[in-house]
Design goal:
It is a single chain. The chain is 39% helix and 15% strand. It is an alpha/beta fold. The chain has a domain of 212 residues: TIM Barrel, CATH 3.20.20. Helix 2 links the parallel strand 3 and strand 4. The longest helix is centred in the first third of the chain and has 16 residues. The radius of gyration is 19 Å and the shape is globular. The protein starts with a helix and ends with a helix. The relative contact order is 0.17.
Length: 303
């Protein structure tokens, strides 16, 4: 599988399209936003995932690089930073960097409970808040539906007392979609986090329309299908007509395809390099594509 860095370079060279200049130095539209149905708050359509990328422990060089990524993310209008106790040291790294760089007030922090039992769940959530260095966070999610019947009442209590603003559930496996659908139909939720990409389109059949119907915001994980999409287009030039749809790289095409779905509130690609972050964030600048454009983007990628 090619590295993102080499793939970006190859794609731009083949297409003849120059990489967009840093957004801080160019007159560019702002990052698009969409409404969270629960309370009509607007949220930037591109966030930042932390699985693997922020799990760097106490490595000072890696933390310094990620600090620049987080700062640039805020400069470009990003808000959602999504983590989990499952992601090793990621919560602590996010919390430390946000505190050191005074970024907390501009972040929409999302994390998860990923354990079984009420007492264990409460203890884990308390630890997450400690690691994130915040007495309250914006979104707490039940990771992969782990013991969701136990945790959901606790999340409702935390929301009622102001410790979290929103609650939700997450998954990434088609095998769990039936249970996700059942929960969406029966339980009032604020957010659903689910996988959706050109390589993994199944959630668009029932879950995304149902989320829209139920007034549930959607965060999209695995937007590049763990890199599989880059392998799919390896060696292919980005079509020249992609620029007309706001795409200067394959990553932007993949992300704009996702954002064309009106049920999607935010996608959370992970980035450990500033240049990758800037490339991703450019996909959310300006008017978002509609379903007609989505079909054109899919054809360009060979889907």
């Amino acid at each position: 599988m090619p590295s993102r860095r080499s793939f970006l370079h190859h794609s731009f060279a083949l297409s003849g399209l120059a990489m967009m200049p840093p957004l801080a130095h160019a007159a560019a539209p702002s990052l698009a936003t969409r409404i969270i149905p629960a309370d009509d708050r607007r949220l930037a359509v591109l966030g930042l995932g932390t699985w693997q990328t922020f799990d760097v422990g106490t490595n000072s060089a890696a933390r310094d690089t990620l600090g620049r990524v987080l700062t640039r993310f805020i400069e470009l209008g990003g808000e959602v930073v999504d983590s989990s106790p499952m992601y090793g040291s990621s919560e602590s790294v996010v919390g430390d960097l946000a505190a050191a760089r005074k970024l907390r007030e501009r972040l929409f922090l999302a994390t998860k409970v990923w354990t079984s039992g009420k007492a264990a769940g409460i203890a884990q959530m308390e630890e997450s808040l400690r690691r994130l260095r915040s007495p309250r966070i914006e979104l707490m999610q039940i990771h992969n539906l782990q013991d969701w019947k136990t945790h959901l009442p606790v999340l409702r209590e935390w929301k009622a007392t102001g410790r979290i603003r929103y609650l939700g559930i997450t998954h990434y496996s088609v095998g769990a979609y039936a249970e996700v659908e059942d929960i969406l139909r029966r339980e009032p939720l604020d957010f659903l986090q689910i996988n959706y990409s050109l390589a993994e389109q199944e959630s668009a059949r029932r879950l995304l329309p149902l989320a829209a119907e139920r007034g549930v915001a959607v965060i999209v994980n695995r937007p590049f299908a763990e890199g599989a999409l880059f392998s799919t287009v390896k060696g292919r030039a980005l079509p020249a007509e992609a620029a007309a749809l706001g795409c200067r790289s394959w990553a932007q095409l993949f992300l704009r395809w996702i954002l064309a779905h009106p049920a999607v509130t935010c996608a959370i690609p992970a980035s450990r390099r500033v240049e990758h972050l800037e490339d991703n964030m450019a996909a959310g600048m300006g008017a978002l594509p509609d379903f007609k454009a989505q079909k054109a983007l899919a054809r360009m990628a060979g889907f």
